[in-house]
Automatic annotation (TrEMBL):
High-level lineage: Eukaryota, Viridiplantae, Streptophyta, Embryophyta, Tracheophyta
Designated name of the protein: Phytocyanin domain-containing protein
Keyword Signal in record: yes
Subcellular location: Cell membrane
Family: Belongs to the early nodulin-like (ENODL) family.
A GO CC term attached to the entry: side of membrane
Main location (coarse class): membrane
């Protein structure tokens, strides 16, 4: 029995650690959706980028015909002028993956200047990394003559303050954390019997 308990604890630790790694995994976005990186997409690239929320370590997958086009990462001024001469990075393999390794703007243009002039370019804004721990809220200073909080008539103590509503929007990791916890419970149940 003691061996089963140790095995269950070891398995539980392994599953939780794997879940934590999975929940922090980044997304891969296919630029332009089904159209890929093309001179005439059904939706403008900046419109596509504006519909998505990019975070540090997410990746962009540019799909295009190798040799027929390319993707250049450029500075803001080169983006505006479609200057293909001074790229920061050049992606040429047809299925190019670019990792968004910092917050802030990234500027992409087609390696074919005529495609860039016709609109094959995109700005991606990567959200700043945030600490998910909320900062404590300071108590408001008490001013003389200000209204006092309502009290419970039975005991004279201050009435409870209603809690603010919580967003129902799922976070990036809520479903994977839930899955890991359920899996951990099932493994423990199966091992311990």
């Amino acid at each position: 029995m003691e061996g089963k308990v140790e095995a269950a604890i070891g398995m539980l630790v392994l599953v939780v650690m794997a879940g934590l790694l999975y929940s922090s995994e980044a997304y891969v976005f296919t630029v332009g959706g089904k159209d890929g990186w093309s001179p005439k997409p059904s939706e403008g690239y900046n419109q596509w980028a504006g519909r998505n929320r990019f975070q540090v370590n997410d990746s962009l997958l540019f799909k295009y015909q190798k040799g027929a086009d390319s993707v250049l990462v450029v500075r803001r001024d080169n983006y505006a002028s479609c200057n293909t001469e001074e790229p920061i990075a050049s992606l040429t393999d047809g299925d190019s993956l670019f990792v968004l390794n910092r917050s802030g703007p990234f500027f992409f243009i087609s390696g074919k200047v005529e495609n860039c002039y016709s609109g094959q370019k995109m700005i991606v804004i990567v959200l700043a990394e945030r600490d998910i721990t909320p900062a404590p809220q300071p108590l408001p200073p008490h001013t003389p003559g200000a209204a006092t909080p309502p009290t419970n008539a039975q005991n004279g103590f201050p009435a409870p303050v209603p809690t603010p509503p919580v967003s129902s929007a799922p976070s990036r990791c809520s479903s994977s954390v839930t899955a890991v916890l359920w899996f951990s419970v099932m493994v423990t149940y199966l091992v311990l019997g």
